[in-house]
């Protein structure tokens, strides 16, 4: 995740490996999940909903270019950034290595 740098992905800030359990520190997304945001704001205009979809698509295209498969894209796994943008989060992901074999990673969001 440290190699990822995109405005529509939640940024990894650091890791606290000496903590039990292991802590992964991610960018704060004060708007919560897209799922809860949509429930709270059921009157959002179509243009705003499309903007959230475009944000998510941009994040997914970035991951695709890096041969990363998210495996669980859903509104519950997208967070709302401080500028009301949608950011992909909750990486339970697979990454292809140089041999084309997939390695699986699970990363926990700590906000």
What does the secondary structure layout of this molecule look like, with pairings?
Blueprint: E1 12-16, E2 23-26, H1 34-40, H2 46-65, E3 68-69, E4 78-80, E5 86-88, E6 92-96, E7 102-106
Features:
111 residues, alpha+beta, Transferase(Phosphotransferase), domain 1, three-stranded antiparallel sheet, 2 helices, 24% helix, globular, disordered C terminus, nucleotide-binding, Prot_kinase_dom, Protein kinase domain-containing protein
Describe the structure.
Keywords: ATP-binding, Nucleotide-binding. This is Protein kinase domain-containing protein. GO terms for molecular function: ATP binding; protein tyrosine kinase activity. The chain has 111 residues and is an alpha+beta fold. The protein has a single domain, classed as Orthogonal Bundle (Transferase(Phosphotransferase), domain 1). It contains 2 helices and 7 strands. The strands form 3 sheets. The chain has a 3-stranded antiparallel β-sheet. A two-stranded antiparallel ribbon has the order 1-2. A hairpin with a 6-residue loop joins β1 and β2. The radius of gyration is 15 Å and the shape is globular.
CATH superfamily: Transferase(Phosphotransferase) domain 1
Number of helices: 2
Query: Could you tell me the strand content as a percent range?
Result: 15-25%
Radius of gyration: 15 Å
> Portion of residues in helices?
10-25%
Give a count of the beta strands, DSSP E runs of length 2 or more.
7
The helix/strand class is alpha+beta
CATH topology name, in short, is: Transferase(Phosphotransferase), domain 1
Anisotropy-based shape: globular
Which stretches of 5+ consecutive residues score pLDDT under 50? 102-111
Mean model confidence by pLDDT: 82
Cα distance, first to last residue? 16 Å
């Amino acid at each position: 995740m440290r190699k990822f740098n995109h405005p529509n992905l939640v940024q990894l800030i650091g890791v606290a490996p000496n903590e039990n359990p292991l802590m992964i520190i991610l960018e704060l997304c004060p708007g919560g999940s897209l799922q809860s945001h949509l429930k709270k704001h059921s009157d959002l205009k179509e243009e705003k909903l499309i903007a959230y979809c475009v944000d998510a698509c941009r994040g997914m295209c970035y991951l695709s270019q890096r041969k990363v498969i998210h495996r669980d894209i859903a509104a519950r796994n997208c967070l709302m950034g401080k500028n009301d943008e949608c950011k992909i989060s909750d990486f339970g992901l697979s990454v292809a290595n140089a041999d084309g074999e997939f390695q699986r990673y699970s990363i926990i969001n700590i906000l």
